[in-house]
Structure prediction request, 226 residues.
Amino acid sequence: MWQCHRVARGDGRRGSPSRGAGVVPFVALLLLQRRPVSGRALLGTSSACPTNGLCRANVLEQTRRQVALLNATAQDLFSLYLKCQGEPFSSESDRLCSPSGIFFPPFHVNRTTERKEVMVAMYKLFAFLNASLGNITRDQEELNPMAKELLNRLHNTTKTTRGLISNLTCLLCKHYNIFQVDVSYGESSKDKSAFKKKQQGCQVLRKYVQVIAQAARVLLPHLSPA
Prediction:
């Protein structure tokens, strides 16, 4: 049974990025994963990919498991998030959490798309998600500091996402010599009202539930051993 203990709003604040653009080298992104970064759709190649030596022997299987885990836990995370926000989110989620008005990176690949294109699209998706989870977690630590199960699930999802980003980085470097990708992010929730912070979080998580299911269907066949 989900537990969501709610108390009065806390006071902690931490910074978060606004939407922007720029090139993010993989090594820099891996070092900065605790601080969301921003950028937009640019690839680069080099004769010396900086993460060539960082791939684990089981990187494909580990990546498959991470995608499957995120897909399996996404709906429960969204449902628990709604419960912890209280009314009107619990009873009006269809109206308040519709993701139609928020930014989310386009994901137009399918099972017949070339593997390289799929990997790049996945990297952009999960880099965006990593930053979004950071924003949502910061807001929930402020608004619902006693919602321990929700915060634990957010932290665990972020941890899995960071590991997935690391593995996608490795695969892109090893197989395609791609060492930098610029990704896009949605607007920051930092200066919004408590209601808007809750709403932005539920919009992002609802869209995440939809996209991670598609991502799993598309990516997993590409990660099967040759």
User: Anything to note?
Assistant: Residues 115-143 form the longest helix (29 residues).
